[in-house]
Amino acid sequence: MRNYRLYLIEDEFAAHYFGRESMFFQLFREYERAFGELKYITGKQIKYITKTVEALKIHKLLQKQLGKIKGFKAEHGTYSIEINGRLSTAKLAVFQDFISVEATGSYEAETVFFEVLRKCESSFLAIDLDHERFGWLKPIKERKYV
């Protein structure tokens, strides 16, 4: 099983740390492992570099984009999708500070969620602490600066 947390990173930090995403990963991993004062300090750092997730906007977007897809279900604010029977499944939950995605099987189901979310915001960073994987849903190099 793959467990992702998707965080919205403030644009200035996303641009500044492009190519050094491992620093974000290290911060989030340290927060998960920390206790006491270190947990408090890393929590404040995370709060500073992240934006609040606009839950209503995400809920509407998911319903609109995926509502008619076979295998998509919405129950109590949680969304799930099954592709090719049970060969690829993913479950998404929206929270104020992050979005949680749990996936099993092939990568198809989670990719469906990621594609919708990357169109919504340009600075989503996906982190899988268990498998030490991380990356942008929409690579920052695609952004055009004048």
Provide a descriptive summary of the structure in words:
- The protein has 146 residues and is an alpha+beta fold.
- Helix content is 40%, strand content 29%.
- It contains 5 helices and 8 strands, in the order βαααβαββββαββ.
- The chain has helices at residues 11-16, 21-33, 36-49, 55-66, 108-120; strands spanning 2-9, 50-51, 72-75, 78-83, 88-94, 99-105, 124-128, 133-136.
- Strands 1, 2, 3, 4, 5, 6, 7 and 8 form an 8-stranded antiparallel sheet that branches.
- A hairpin with a 4-residue loop joins strand 7 and strand 8.
- Helix 2 runs antiparallel to helix 3 and helix 4 (55-66) packs across helix 5.
- The longest helix is centred in the N-terminal third of the chain and has 14 residues, at 36-49.
- The model is unreliable at 142-146 (pLDDT under 50).
